[in-house]
Design a protein that fits this description.
There is one protein chain. The protein folds into 2 domains: about 160 residues, Sandwich (Immunoglobulin-like); about 80 residues, Immunoglobulin-like. Helices cover about 30% and strands about 35% of the residues. The strands form 4 sheets. Strands 1-9-8-3-4-5 form a 6-stranded mixed β-sheet. A 4-stranded antiparallel β-sheet has the order 10-11-14-13, with no helix packed on it. A hairpin with a 5-residue loop joins β13 and β14. It is elongated and about 160 Å long.
């Protein structure tokens, strides 16, 4: 499948270069004659006889910068340098430089992040600023000279680091998640438990991996999740809440807990009842009223004493 795709790209590239030559208005010139149609035909034959070889497979992390080199040796009598950029489900972009007029042209190229690294008359290096997933694809450089054509291909694979998370459900189970990574992350556990994984592929070719592990009956209190990825490896640890015991132990504990709670409830109700009764009885107890007759008698006695004292003082 890959060979067929590369072969198709080769034919497309040759056609694009011919079109660009016509757009540039290029005509081969000999030393003693004017334009030579045989020279142009020879050049076209060279273009169709290019050997297509993938020179490099390049992996780069998203949001970084990448530089693609072209022919590294000195080029004599350069006619044209062409970059063909083939992305997934997009029209091929062609960037070309003609040396005799020191002129550049682009066809179907709308991505402003992809540019020549410097002036094409100095070198033919291509650069991409802030790489995105959409930049995945083939970047082919062709140098056309009277002696022949030289081709270099770079296959770009953009890497996306996953977002990681680790949590537990409090029942001896932990979930480790590596979200929207490219390619899919690999997840392992220490200590090992009873685990299974679920992968979800998204429309932008990123993958979310979720690993779910159980340690019921293994008496583990702390577990570690290891995430392996081409952008770097990470690990997260978490404390497990007490796991569920076996069925018989759980039943005994539940019965004992119910008995204790029942006793506490009964005692609480008894105390509350006694407190309510005490308050009711206290509120209903008759209050003592002052003895009105006693007070009147005391007042009379005091009055008589005062009268007697007053009479004695007059005598």
């Amino acid at each position: 499948m890959k060979v067929r795709s590369l072969g198709k790209m080769t034919s497309t590239l040759g056609l694009w270069i011919i079109v660009l030559l016509l757009l540039f208005g290029y005509t081969a010139e000999s030393s003693a004659h004017g334009p030579s149609s045989s020279a142009l035909a020879q050049e076209q034959a060279h273009l169709h006889s290019l050997n297509f070889n993938v020179a490099t497979n390049v992996s780069v992390q998203v949001d970084t910068k990448i530089v693609f080199s072209c022919y590294t040796y000195s080029v004599k009598n350069l006619l044209m340098a062409v970059w063909e950029i083939l992305h997934r489900d997009k029209i091929t972009c062609v960037m070309a430089y003609r040396s005799d007029k020191n002129e550049t042209k682009e066809t179907n190229c709308s991505n402003e992040r992809i540019t020549w690294e410097s002036r094409p008359d100095w070198n033919f290096t291509l650069q991409i600023h802030h790489v995105t997933i959409e930049d995945d694809g083939y970047y082919t450089c062709v140098i056309a000279t009277p002696e022949g054509n030289f081709q270099y291909v770079h296959q770009l694979n953009v890497l996306v680091p996953p977002e990681i998370a680790l949590f537990t459900d409090g029942n001896g189970t932990a979930v480790c998640e590596a979200s929207v990574g490219k390619p899919a992350a690999q997840i392992s556990w220490v200590p090992e438990g009873y685990c299974f994984s679920v992968n979800e592929t998204h429309g932008n070719r990123t993958v979310t991996v979720k690993s779910i592990c159980h340690w019921n009956g293994l008496n583990e209190t702390k577990v570690t999740c290891f995430i392996s990825h081409l952008t770097g490896n990470k690990s997260l640890s978490i404390e497990l809440l007490p796991s569920c015991p076996n069925h018989s132990t759980s039943l005994s504990l539940n019965i004992g807990l119910c008995v204790v709670l029942s006793l506490i409830t009964v005692m609480g109700l008894i105390l509350i009842g006694k407190s309510i009764c005490y308050r009711i009885c206290k509120s209903q107890k008759p209050r003592s009223t002052p003895n009105i007759n006693m007070k009147e008698e005391e007042l009379y006695v005091n009055y008589m004493k005062s009268v007697h004292c007053e009479n004695e003082s007059k005598n």
